[in-house]
């Protein structure tokens, strides 16, 4: 772990912009027997141009919260409390929970887009890259002419470092890293103000992961969108994020600047996460999450 490579992280604080997305006391429940409280009173604020990391072990509620922010929850999941407000660049505040129909469709992808967990396998195997990118514009920009769609699709692939000649390719003809870049291009298609990225480098080898991360950082700096980056890899978040929120058993137990999380973690679980990655030297330890180890938080 070498977080000191990030000029926005532990080397110094960044000046945060105005809020772009605010979630207050969000609770989400899976209505099964017995009910499962997947997210409990979670509150986060994402600022313009910021990378907010959301970390925690598998099953802690990270993806469920992300789906709630983007109104993608499906039965049996139900948001049972809280509010989500999108602060549009136009100055309008949008009550995300109250959206439906056309207003909800315009919010998704246009205002907030998402790169899904395992998204590199989410492309339709029988449709070309061109067709899948063009469908975004056919749905959300129906007045766009065919030549404009073609030009924009080529521009998007170039933006993420893929040769536009690959527009004619099918997903099985692309490497895992290229498929992931196509999915990022799709998420960028409508110039969203927020991108939610749910473990976008999962299942990629380390070299390809680094390339994808560099591309995300470059695009964020160039286009100015804010990012919620979800992963269980806390050292990665310390390296790339401006701020980090730690999630445990459906609750956000600690939030702070990357430097604060790295130098002086306040919650026992955060300290356990930081110490769970093996050192090159010293004895091997076990990550044991018990009530005593967590200070009763587990």
UniProtKB/TrEMBL annotation:
Q: How does it sit in the membrane?
A: Peripheral membrane protein
Q: Which Pfam families match?
A: ABC_tran, oligo_HPY
* Domain ABC transporter stretches: 21-274
Q: Which key words are in the record?
A: ATP-binding, Cell inner membrane, Cell membrane, Membrane, Nucleotide-binding, Translocase, Transport
Where is it mostly found? membrane
The entry's localization annotation reads: Cell membrane
GO MF terms here are: ATP binding
Family label: Belongs to the ABC transporter superfamily.
Q: Which PANTHER family match?
A: ATPASE AAA-TYPE CORE DOMAIN-CONTAINING PROTEIN (PTHR43297:SF14), OLIGOPEPTIDE TRANSPORT ATP-BINDING PROTEIN APPD (PTHR43297)
**Annotated protein name in UniProt:** ABC transporter ATP-binding protein
Taxonomic placement: Bacteria, Bacillati, Actinomycetota, Actinomycetes, Micrococcales
């Amino acid at each position: 772990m070498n977080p000191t490579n990030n000029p926005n992280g532990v080397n110094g604080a960044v000046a945060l912009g105005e809020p772009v997305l605010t979630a207050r006391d969000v609770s989400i429940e899976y209505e099964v027997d017995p009910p499962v409280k997947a997210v409990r009173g979670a509150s986060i604020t994402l600022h313009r141009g910021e990378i907010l990391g959301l970390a925690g072990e598998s099953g802690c509620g990270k993806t469920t919260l992300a789906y709630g922010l983007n109104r993608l929850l499906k039965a049996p999941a139900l948001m049972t409390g809280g509010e989500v407000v999108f602060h549009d660049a136009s100055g309008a505040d949008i009550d995300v929970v109250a959206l439906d129909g056309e207003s909800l469709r315009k919010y998704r992808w246009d205002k907030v887009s998402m790169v899904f967990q395992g998204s590199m396998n989410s492309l339709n195997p029988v449709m070309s890259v061109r067709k899948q990118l063009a469908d975004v514009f056919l749905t959300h920009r129906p007045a766009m002419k065919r030549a404009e769609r073609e030009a924009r699709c080529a521009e998007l692939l170039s933006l993420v470092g893929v040769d536009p000649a690959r527009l004619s390719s099918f997903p099985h003809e692309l490497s895992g890293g290229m498929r992931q870049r196509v999915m990022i291009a799709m998420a960028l298609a409508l110039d969203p103000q927020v991108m939610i990225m749910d473990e976008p480098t999962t299942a990629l080898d380390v070299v390809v992961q680094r390339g994808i991360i560099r591309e995300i950082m470059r695009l964020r700096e160039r286009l100015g969108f804010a990012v919620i980056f979800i992963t269980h890899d806390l050292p990665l978040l310390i390296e790339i994020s401006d701020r980090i929120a730690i999630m445990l058993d459906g609750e956000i137990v600690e939030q702070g600047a990357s430097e604060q999380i790295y130098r002086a973690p306040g919650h026992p679980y955060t300290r356990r996460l930081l110490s769970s990655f093996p050192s090159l030297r010293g004895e091997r330890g076990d990550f044991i999450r018990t009530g005593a180890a967590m200070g009763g938080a587990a």
